[in-house]
């Protein structure tokens, strides 16, 4: 599974420098071949030729001493072992190069996640999360830097270990296994941190959306209450205007009646004066009776108008009292909702402070 991951990460376009001293065995192989040629005396019994990492042994003269033959066999085995060591070290070098490519790809992925994180944070217009997001981003960058430094230190240690193992193969497999385990652990740790960061970002985003939704609902409720209050006020004003119109109408009717009465009285007085001066006493009595009846009508009209004004005033006072009570109830309900929203915002702020701590 680790090799498959390394192969997948190697498909990226990341190009890293080659490890210094990747093939130090070529000079050693030349030195061994020179020593082997220096040992030969007379015609060689067997000639070893290297062709594309293969050893071809040719039979020679059988007159050489057996000890020389044994020495040739040992030298041949040493060359074979040296070639095996060279191949193993080449494999380890390739694995280190793949590891560097994978590390670079992880770094690029981490920076890409950082850019996405900054883009998501720029969409949030609240000033409450600015310090928290800045600290989270700084911690994320510090953690990525520490991982890169640790991986660079591990790679430098592995390079030194490869240079130290040029003359032997003992411990190569153990070092490769340890490196794979360490890299897998680092990858798992990095992925876990990235997943936790994404989860915390999603949680904060959902909390902010919830707070915005609550605030919007409170604003809508307040707007509805304000609209209802305005409608009630408009109705009261229309009723007051209607009552004022009725009062003006009644006053006009009463004044017109009084004018007609005065005209009739004057006309009757003129007629009675012209008709008979002898009936002056009767006319005076009639006028006295008529004045008394007219004063009674005026008193009744005034009492009726005062009762209507008092009734309208009491009705208007009751409606104003009901309106004030409804306004107080709406204000209390809005204050309760605002207090709940403020408590929710305080809890969110406390959660953010706890996460930052």
Automatic annotation (TrEMBL):
Keywords: Coiled coil
Name the record gives this protein: Uncharacterized protein
InterPro entries in alphabetical order: FAM81
Family: Belongs to the FAM81 family.
Recorded superkingdom: Eukaryota
Organism of provenance: Mytilus galloprovincialis (Mediterranean mussel)
